Amino acid sequence: MRTIRIGSGAGYSGDRIEPAVELAEKGNINYLVFECLAERTIAIAQNAKLNDPTKGYDPLLVERFESVLPICKKNGIKIITNMGAANPQAGAAKVREIATRLGLGKLKIAAISGDDVVEALKVSDTKILETGAPASNMADVLISANAYVGAAPMVEALANGADVIITGRVADPSMFLAPQIHEFGWSQDDWDKIGKGTAVGHLLECGGQVTGGYYAEPGKKDVADLARLGFPIAEVSEDGAIVITKVEGSGGKVTEHTCKEQILYEVHDPKTYLTPDVTADFSQITFTEIAPNRIRVTGVTGRARTKTFKVSVGYADGYMGEGQISYAGPGALARAQLALDIVRERLKITGVKASELRFDLIGVNSIHAEVLAPAPEPTEVRVRVTGRCDSMKEAVRIGNEVETLYTNGPASGGGATKSAKQVVAMLSALFPRDKVIPVIEYLEA
Amino acid sequence: MKLFDIAHSRTGDKGNISNISVIVYDQKDYERVREYVTPERVKAHFKGIVNGEVVRYEIPTLGALNFVMQDALGGGVTRSLALDAHGKCLASALLAMDIPAKN
Questions:
Q1: Is B48 on the interface with A (CB under 8 A)?
Q2: Residue B54's domain is classified under what CATH number?
Q3: A163/A272 same-domain check
Q4: Boundaries of each AtuA-like ferredoxin-fold domain copy (chain B) (predicted)?
Q5: Which of A48, A126, A376, B28 is the most buried (most CB within 10 A)?
């Protein structure tokens, strides 16, 4: 039975660089996938592209490709990534430039776009899922709208001999599914196999989160060597048999329990995991350790996919201002509470226009509010005030009112910081499949 | 005893919805956790944080429950004023739930 090995080189845009190098060098992999596009990343990239048409791809694209491209070329590893963000063509051109500069010889790069539906959405009656209002109502604040495209265009690019695929918005698991469909010639409506291939993608898409990252609980769930965490590899056979593993000797661990945590990560109904490719069913999944750091995955099935693509909608949502200051030693909590009272009153007296305000004591209640039982008096507390405003000018005033606690507030306040930023927020919608036309362009080095 | 003693947990986020898995270390504790950690108890546990409905899915093959909590992330990850906008820490907060010791 033929088997391929797929490595996951990044779980988010800012992820560590060298685990992917380790995978390319020692992982004996056929494909290396980088998932680098969070919900909001593409809206931010869209703004970058508006300012400079040669930008709008992932800020770490150059560093990642410089690190892995020579090794991947030498070892015959194909690379698939959504680092194209808002501008896959510009990302692909950059990869070609790197390949030429490093003298890597022939390389076929595919840029997949067509996910950008912002103009179509502005004039459509498509409803925003969260609000129920038509997307056209918010045309003046829309920054981006990108459909989660499936595996199909990536499968086509692989069939046409692409060594590197740079996409915009695609569903994360689809990047891992595409090479399985391509290599094994699976029919794209063989729902059980597509479901299994999607489970592989879901387990790998967050990089180290299945190899012991986001998992350690000292004394209960110990994980060795997280500073050298190895990223995951999936071994997939033609019949859809799956083993999850990692590079031998790397940090972290792959166990039944690391897999259990990751398979449910960001999943709602495990029976109905919707992707552009399939409705996957994880409700009967099992994980079995067949050797240390080798977990067999069974029990995944699939059903027909839905008729729509999910669209991620980015819009300008005002401004956020924040200020922080610390208090320590005996009476720290009382002084921190006094500080919050003072800022609350100051924001009123000076008429700062905020539609929402939040007052936290970091170390006391900033994460869990009333959930946890009261802790013993802390020896240090950090005050945090944040608010939402319609203008940058107003947002800045929130941090200023925290900073002035230095000379106007309780005793011994220290380490004040302040910030203000524009908020790019995200909503979602469902868009008919036939209105999203993926475009594949090829560049050759 | 606390849920922390017999189960582990991970939080995921989608928009303003948070999901928390609760996974027993030992399959023999699954039934007990399933009986005690109800959606109603989880909703009460997260009073002041989770404003919407809490739905529970059971995955017995994993010894796991998955709680999906609406209106749990201060308007959504990308616009929340919270320090932990993703609600990543909610998993640990859920493990602080007291659970009756075995009969």
A1: yes
A2: 3.30.70
A3: yes
A4: 1-99
A5: A126
